[in-house]
């Protein structure tokens, strides 16, 4: 019996994604940050002083979720909202010195965690996996742009 793509790709992808988030939260707990917050902080570390809309797109978060994450990052002193000099109705999001220090500490740490995830997986297989993920993501992006396709 053939397993549906919904189950073999969809459910498996969701399951692995949840497990990655769960184990990252375990590893990140001592740093007082979650995997969701880390994704946003990492994005800020790469693209400082950007609008919330731009940050939402780059971090792939909806506005409501991003607002909650930013509230927590701000509360913990990792990021802040500053007035946008070109648009008084909006804010720019910036990483603080404390947030930069944490990012610099976590980048190599998270890399070692991911090394554990892929331990004993052949580099060629990992390259194919990454290529397939990019292809699936492009297909999904195209469908999001034109859902009737």
TrEMBL record:
Residues 6-138 form the HTH marR-type domain. One of its GO terms (molecular function) is DNA binding. InterPro entries: HTH_MarR-typ, MarR/SlyA-like, WH-like_DNA-bd_sf, WH_DNA-bd_sf. GO terms for biological process: response to stress. It comes from the Bacteria. Keywords: DNA-binding, Transcription, Transcription regulation. This is DNA-binding MarR family transcriptional regulator.
